[in-house]
Amino acid sequence: MEEEYSYITALDVELKEEDQAEIGFILPHEHIFQNLSQFADQSLVDFDSISLFNIQQIRDQPFRCNRNLNLDSVEEMHFEMQELISHPVYKNRKALIVEATNNQNGQDHAKLNELAKLLKINLVKGFTFGKDLSKIDLNDEKTKVLFSAQNILNQVDFEFELCTNDQKPSYIGEIELSELNLENNLIHQNALIAYLHISKAKKVPILFNLKNQPTPNIEKLISQMKPEHIGRIVLFNPQFQYEEKRLVIEKENEQNLTLVKQIKNFKEILSLLNQKFILGFDILRYDYNDLVDITKLLLQKGYSKQILISNGVKYRSDLRKYGGKGFFAVFDFIKDTQMSDQQIEDIFKNNMIAVLQWNTFKVKIQEIKQWKCPICGKEQPENIQRFTKLGKEFCSIPCLKKAVF
C-alpha cells in the first residue's frame, strides 16, 4: 500500500502538511534582495543617496537613485522583518515569504539563507531562464539551436530536479510577461513553451508580473495553456484601465452633473478569474484607495479563493526605514477592505499554499501484524524472534519461567 504526501520546497527545507499547519501568514510577492541598478538609464540618475530632502522625489521616480534600486543589506531586511513577524497575526506561528526576485535581477541565495536563519522564517524562491539578449545574435543558426525550446526546457527541468546551490525553486518566475517579445523573438517564444511544458509535467506553478501595464501577451499565453495549468498560473498586478463618466444625479428636484471614475476593463479582469487564473495585487504598486475598492468588489463577487495580496516591496524607498509602509501595508489593507476571518485565511495562506504545493512523494506502508504474549499480554511485531519452549512462544525469559514453573 502507498500513501502520497505533498510538500512545499522552502529553500532547502521540505514543508510537509504538518509543517504547513504552523504557517501563520504568507506574503506571496516580495523582493527581498534585488539589484535593478543594472537596468537603470544612468543619464536619468541624479541622486547618489537617499535623504530626507529627496525621498519623495525618489519615491515618485525610483530610477533616479541607484541606491534605491539595490536591496542588498541583510541588516536592513532583518530590521524590517523582525517587527513584522512579531505581529499578532502570526499567532506564534511561522511566516512564509515568497521571494519574487528572479535569478536575473540579483537573487542572492547566501543572503536568503542567512536571513531565514536569523528570523526563523521560511522563504520560497523561483527560477527564471534568462539571457542578456543584447549580446545574442538571434539570426545565428548556432544560437537558434543553443536556445531551442528543448534546450531551454532541459535547463529549467534541471533546476527543478537537481537544482543549483542545493536549493530547489518552488515556482517558475517571476516572469515579466509584458517584456517578452512573443511576436518575433525566438528565444522568448521557446522560453514560454518550456515554462508551460515544465508546469504541466511537474505541476509547477508559474508566477507572471504584469507590472500594472497593458499586456497583449495574455492572449498568447492563454492560447498555449492546457487544462493542467488551471490553478497553477498567477498573474500579479494586472492593469485596471479607468474612464470618467458624467452622470446626472437628481436630488430634491435638483439635477447635478457628477464625474464618476469607472473601470472600463473590469469584464476582462473577471474573464481571467472565470478562466481560473489566480490574480495577485501588490499594495505598493497601485493607488491605495483604488485597490481597496477593487478588492472589496472582487470579494463581494465571491473570488476570495483566487486572490493573493502582498505588499510588493521592491525599492529601498518602500521600506519603513526610509518612510515607506514596508511589509506592514497589508495590515492596514485588511482593515480597510473589511475582510472576514475566512477571507484573510484564504488570501494570506490557503490560496498560496494551494499554488505552491506541487511536490509529492510516495511512501510505502507495510502492515505489520502483532503477536501477543500469552503470559503478560505484551504485543510485539509478529516477525521478530522470541523465546520458545514446548512449542510455545514467550516475549521474555521471565514469562517463559512463569509458563514452565
Primary descriptors:
globular; three-stranded antiparallel β-sheet; hydrolase; alpha/beta; TIM Barrel; 19 strands; zinc ion binding; hydrolase activity; eight-stranded parallel β-sheet
Give a description of the structure:
- An 8-stranded parallel β-sheet has the order 3-6-7-8-9-10-13-14. It has a 3-stranded antiparallel β-sheet with strand order 2-1-15.
- It has 405 residues and is of the alpha/beta class.
- Helix 7 links the parallel strand 8 and strand 9.
- It has 13 helices and 19 strands.
- It has 2 domains: 298 residues, TIM Barrel; 35 residues, no CATH class.
- Helix 3 packs parallel to helix 4 and helix 6 crosses helix 7.
- Its cofactor is a divalent metal cation.
- One of its GO terms (molecular function) is zinc ion binding.
- Keywords: Hydrolase, Metal-binding.
Blueprint (SSEs and pairs):
Layout: E1 2-10, E2 13-15, H1 17-20, E3 23-30, E4 34-35, H2 55-60, E5 70-71, H3 74-84, E6 94-99, H4 109-119, E7 122-127, H5 141-146, H6 149-161, E8 171-176, H7 186-202, E9 206-209, H8 217-224, E10 233-236, E11 242-251, E12 254-263, H9 266-274, E13 278-282, H10 288-300, E14 307-310, H11 329-337, H12 341-356, E15 359-364, E16 370-372, E17 379-381, E18 387-389, E19 392-394, H13 397-404
Parallel strand pairs: 3-6, 6-7, 7-8, 8-9, 9-10, 10-13, 13-14
Antiparallel strand pairs: 1-2, 1-15, 4-5, 11-12, 16-17, 18-19
Helix pairs in contact: 3-4, 6-7
Protein name: Phosphotriesterase-like protein, putative
Cofactor: a divalent metal cation
InterPro entries: Metal_Hydrolase, Phosphotriesterase
